[in-house]
Design goal:
With about 260 residues, this protein is α/β, with parallel strands linked by helices. The chain folds into two domains: about 5-125, Translation factors (Elongation Factor Tu (Ef-tu), domain 3, Beta Barrel), CATH 2.40.30.10; about 135-250, Nucleotide-binding domain of ferredoxin-NADP reductase (FNR) module (Rossmann fold), CATH 3.40.50. About 15% of the residues lie in helices and about 35% in strands. It contains five helices and 14 strands. It has helices at about 35-40, 105-110, 145-150, 195-205, 220-235, and strands at about 10, 10-20, 25-30, 45-50, 60, 65-70, 75-85, 90-100, 115-125, 135-140, 160-165, 180-185, 215-220, 240-250. The strands form three sheets. A six-stranded antiparallel beta barrel has the order 2-3-8-7-4-9. The structure holds flavin-adenine dinucleotide.
Length: about 260
């Protein structure tokens, strides 16, 4: 059991600016102390207040990372995001939010302006293992992670990134090692989470031979499950050879508001 002294307050970041990266991706730049910024990623648990709540009742965080919610109604939702850029010296974090509908996080990002608040309740790494040949598979929600992985990869890295987006207007410039190819897959008018584009694209690949392979996958849960099965069976990748997690689930909110 957690004693009251084991709880710490969450870090609260303040929005400095917002910008549209593509028609459906909104980049929110937040500011905070250098320590809070350094601790806000690469993957980050954000606490999203209701868009119209200027004085949210934040939870606290236990020593084991558990979020301890205040009693009663608080209107704050816990979600997972990726810091696309962290600059502790300037005290700035950038998060790209996909505007997909009326979930708490998408709504918050659509309405957020300078001065809006976002809580941070812990962070994690991208679960990447450096390898000579990388397979990266994702959609708009994992594009911030894929962009960080590619930008930080050794220049000698080879491989392929498969990224599903709605159309050419949703493609983003990526800094990649010269040996990595980026292939954009367009959904067209099909809603997100209802195509098999990523699953089919991985199924059509021949696993490279004689390479140290690592596969990283982040997309809608059903697609990730199918790709994970392919990577484990046909590609023969064990636990150390891949990381594949659902970034969102069609028809399901991500986490209870507590
Ligand atoms: C480790 C990790 C990192 C992530 N990083 C990012 C990131 O940097 N940027 C980002 O935008 N997302 C990211 N995601 C995905 C994001 O957490 C989910 O999309 C989340 O569901 C959004 O919360 P919400 O409150 O807007 O919607 P929720 O309340 O969770 O869901 C409401 C409804 O919206 C649907 N929905 C959720 N996401 C989408 C979507 N992308 N397209 C269509 N429908 C959707 C759900 O199925 C549900 O029906 C990340 C997820 C994980 C696990």
């Amino acid at each position: 059991m957690t004693a009251p002294g084991d709880l710490r307050n969450v870090d609260v970041l303040t929005v400095v600016s917002v910008a549209s990266v593509t028609p459906t991706v909104r980049r929110v730049t937040l500011t905070g102390s250098p320590e809070a910024v350094a601790a806000a990623g690469p993957t980050v648990n954000v606490l999203v207040p209701r868009a119209d709540d200027a004085a949210p009742r934040w939870p606290q965080v236990a020593r084991d990372g558990r979020v301890v919610w205040p009693a009663g109604s608080h209107g704050v939702a816990l979600r997972s995001y990726t810091a696309r850029r962290q600059d502790p010296e300037r005290g700035e974090v950038e998060i790209d939010f996909v505007l997909h509908g009326d979930g708490p996080a998408a709504s918050w990002a659509a309405a957020a302006g300078p001065g809006a608040l976002l809580g941070v309740a812990g962070s994690g790494d991208l679960a990447l293992r450096p390898a000579s040949w990388l397979l990266l598979v994702g959609d708009e929600t994992s594009l911030p992670a894929i962009s960080r992985i590619l930008a930080e990869a050794e220049p000698t890295t080879t491989g392929l990134a498969l990224v599903e987006v709605a159309g050419p207007e949703e493609e983003q410039p990526l800094v990649t090692p010269p040996g990595v190819t980026v292939r954009w897959l367009h959904r067209g008018g099909t809603p997100p989470g209802e195509t098999t584009l990523l699953v089919d694209a991985v199924a059509a690949l021949e696993p490279p031979t004689g390479e140290d392979v690592f596969a990283w996958v982040g997309a809608e849960s059903a697609a990730v499950r199918a790709i994970r099965t392919d990577l484990r069976s046909r590609w023969g990748l064990g636990r150390a050879g891949h990381h594949a997690i659902g970034y969102w689930r069609r028809g399901r909110a991500m986490a209870p508001a507590g």
